Amino acid sequence: MIIQETIKGIREEVKSARRKKRTVGFVPTMGFLHEGHLSLIQAAKAKHDLVVVSIFVNPLQFGPNEDFDRYPRDFERDEQLAKEAGADVLFYPSVTEMYPKEMPMTIHVTRGTDVLCGASRPGHFDGVATVVMKLFQIVQPDEAFFGQKDAQQVAIIANMIEAFNVPIQLNTCPTIREEDGLAKSSRNVYLTAEERQEAPIIYQTLQYGAKRIQAGEKKREIILAEMKERLLSASGRIDYVEVLSYPSLKQPEQLSGRIILAIAYFYQHARLIDNYILEA
What is its EC number (predicted)? Predict the structure, then answer.
């Protein structure tokens, strides 16, 4: 596996692959890789000749009181895991490499940001969209792989690809979970032993809401109330519980079509997110 730290270097790797008629799959990450990331790398490897993985903790998507400096980083570990999963090239740029000067413009996301994580993180998805577009322009892959766990991010990137006619296929892969249902996340390391034991209630609550919809309950407010009630027995704090159409992320009174159930939940040192998508 080759490691490239510069934009020029990664572009040369991709150009070399193109000259050999090789296809390119791309997995953008912020590092501290877990099985969810590795499943994306493996999915890319199954479809493409060259797999590029980026590791970049993007400051544009962190608010002033968020955990940019605390975000877990372990490059040597990530390097080994990426290699074992099948990555061919690891793109590991510095902040200075990605943003050598103050950005004269960013992407402003105008739809789908006033709900879920966007409601409590103003500007977050502008930062996500900007860095993903920048990475797309740098790597120029055939296909990019994202996890369904970050469903709002996936919806926004899908809309961005469509809006700007970006010639990249978006591949959304299923959420990878622990045996007890907890979604894999870099932030799970911040849970205490007691919180970790309790945290599967998030996915259990999503499953409950999905079963109620599948059983015939179509009123959004009833599903919301019942899901919130189930979470009250846990020791943390609800950030949001939502039931929305997907990927439009609108709030229908009556549920029909593709629906996302989503939860964000605060523990003492970790904010966990999860979702469940189904046809109502």
Answer: 6.3.2.1
Residue 230 labelled as part of a binding site: no
Q: What secondary structure, in 3-state letters, does 1-70 show?
A: CEEECCHHHHHHHHHHHHHCCCCEEEEEECCCCCHHHHHHHHHHHHHCCEEEEEECCCHHHCCCCCCCCC
Asked whether residue 61 is marked as a ligand-binding residue, the answer is yes
| Annotated binding-site residue? 134 | no
Average pLDDT of 128-151? 97
Structural domain includes residue 108: yes
Q: Looking at residue 248, which CATH number applies to its domain?
A: 3.30.1300.10
Q: Which helix (H) or strand (E) holds 173?
A: strand 169-173
CATH number, residue 28: 3.40.50.620
Annotated binding residue 33: yes
Active site residue 124: no
pLDDT tens-place string over residues 43-70: 999 999 999 999 999 999 988 777 788 7
Structural domain boundaries, residue 15:
2-173
Amino acid 21: pLDDT: 97
The CA distance from 258 to 249, in Å, is 10
